[in-house]
Amino acid sequence: MKVRIQPAALLLASGYFIYVLSGLLAEGTWDDDCISRYYNTRNAFSDYKVWISLFHRPLWVILFAIPVQLGYWVVPVIMSALCAITAYALYRSAKIKGQQHAWFVIILLLFQPYFFGVGKDALTEPLAALLMALGYWALLKKQYRWFVICGALLPLARLEGVVLLAFWAIPLIRHKQWKHIPFLGAGMLAWNIAGMLFSASADPIWLVHEVLNRGEDPYGEVSFFAFMGRYYYVVGPVTFLFLVIGLLETMLQRKFDLFIHGQFWCGILLYSILAGWDTARSGGFLRHMIVVGPFAALIALDGFNHTLSLLQRARTRRRLAIYLAFVLVICWIWFRNHLEGHHEYTDTFSWINFPSLVVLVLGIVVLGFLSRTRIKMNLMPALGIGISVMAVSFTLITEHPGASINPERQALHEVIAIYRQTDLHSKALIASHPHFLKKINASQWKKNDVTRHNLLKAQEGTVVVWDGHYSTPRKGGLNNTEIPGLGYIELFRVLATDNSYSVIVYEKKDRATTDDVEDRLNELMAAIPTSPHLYFGLARHQYLNKNYQRSEQNIMQALALDSNQFVFHLMLGDLAYLDQEIEKALQYYTKSIQLCPRQMRVHTIMGNLHYQLKHHESAVNAYTDALNFNKNDVEAYLMRGRAHQELGQIQAACQDWEKAKELGHAQAKKQFARYCND
């Protein structure tokens, strides 16, 4: 008997394998929420609050409280399976609706870049997407009981899903399933009752108060257009192109599906509103948009089928050409640049986003041209296979296993390498960063945070890993400048490549002398003689103790091991500046700036050095760079004014002195009064 493998089954199996493999190979989770959710869910049986937490979401805790006891590896295994089920539900729905090439919806969903990236991790958006897909499948099969169950569970995965439940009630009303409508609120009711029972106040509207009293938003407001203006990055060029075509054809043909199109547009509007509402704590995180990813995939499948249909008729090719041109124009205007950290739009042109769309459009144009020639060909295999390969390739390139490694995590990895290879790993540990704790396989998070209480009660030899994110006063920690005063010595520090973040490692050692610190660093260097950061730690210690000659020797050794660390060049510049070697200092500072432009202090120093050397134009440029990072740098305004004066640019000088005067600089007031009062 010959067994025929269905394309959908092959795609689902392949997609699941790629998801799991990518998840297991990932160098880091999508974001730190994954790790905190994992650690807290592991403690769910000893901390009842986890089960009702707004952050952890009851549905995720219910599904994973037992599996995560085995370790984080179960997360990508199970989450990937849930994503595959989501894709299968969409495929079955497309078949019921009679949509052609239903198998293609699997590609259009699973290989949306953000769905692929988020779908393997400990986040709740994929659970909401799963319920959306299962609910729609149940609706099409007229299995209203299962439809209502999916709707009732939706807010337990994503609380904002309660807003979308209005679209779930409409088909129940339309099909006169009145008895099922009240059960859409069963999940919210159960959650509120659980919170009421376990809260100290027995608040009958506990959930409402929890939502309204979540405290200060750590993210702040973002633009209302933060989601709409970046949606291309969420779904990728393939799904985006066909999504737009599907939406345009829907409007043209007036075939509006309220459950699909209504929730899609309402979801985008909802998240756009939440992004600009600082108490919603959404932070403009684009991963929230994958909740409506299943609807985007179904609309894109319509768009794909419309594209095939438009290609095959001469009179409709012009309409398709207009669609393609429209998508290219809006993508060139809004989506051509690089997106940093899955969130921040930059000024850097991306050589994969817009060019991929151009290649896709050109491929469709070529196939359209071939369909008009004597070359007889079935468009579907060529277009379907080509576009599938592009969708998968684009996503695997943009969401590779190291895609979540930002400068902050890279700095942590440098620290982790030293921590593991020295005796530091055998000592008591105080640390707050979840990524650090996960990478060293710590059993718990929030057990020994970097707090004053924990630092004071720590035993001799305790290692402290302070970081500029989770160890700060904003997160309940303390400033790194306070730690030495509590009986700790600084061993070494690592700065992020963009100078936005630092990690500092301390050790508890009361009454330590300068020699004790150097001896301890030499012990660590004996274990890892090729670590540039340990040489930098020793050099910095010697610099602070004014042993400049030995400091220079060690920083040169660090530089020989890694010449791409901007801070090494910075320290050499500082040493040369102390010796009044102006040209030499400028060389080191310039190299440091080339490696990391984000250094306001260095730009100001370079301006001063150029001014001393009478390089007044270079001085103006350096002060301007400093002011680009800090508009209130009063000294930079004063000195740039003097450089302008030397160049004979009195009007520009007066503008700078006026600004410095407004900021309260006494010397600027004198300069302005002397040269600018005519």
Question: Could you characterize what this model shows?
Answer:
With 678 residues, the protein is mainly alpha-helical. It is 61% helix and 5% strand. The chain is built from 30 helices and six strands. The chain has helices at residues 7-25, 32-42, 58-64, 74-97, 104-110, 113-118, 125-140, 144-157, 161-174, 186-198, 206-212, 231-253, 258-275, 293-311, 314-334, 353-371, 379-398, 407-421, 434-439, 452-457, 514-527, 532-544, 548-561, 566-578, 582-595, 600-612, 616-629, 634-646, 650-662, 666-675; strands at residues 337-340, 344-349, 429-431, 463-467, 488-495, 502-508. Strands 3-4-6-5 form a four-stranded mixed sheet. A two-stranded antiparallel ribbon has the order 1-2. β5 and β6 (502-508) form a beta hairpin. α12 runs antiparallel to α15, α14 (293-311) crosses α15 (314-334) and α27 (616-629) packs antiparallel against α28. The longest helix is centred in the N-terminal third of the chain and has 24 residues, at 74-97. The N and C termini lie far apart (101 Å).
Describe the structure concisely.
The longest helix has 24 residues, at 74-97. The protein has helices at 7-25, 32-42, 58-64, 74-97, 104-110, 113-118, 125-140, 144-157, 161-174, 186-198, 206-212, 231-253, 258-275, 293-311, 314-334, 353-371, 379-398, 407-421, 434-439, 452-457, 514-527, 532-544, 548-561, 566-578, 582-595, 600-612, 616-629, 634-646, 650-662, 666-675, and strands at residues 337-340, 344-349, 429-431, 463-467, 488-495, 502-508.
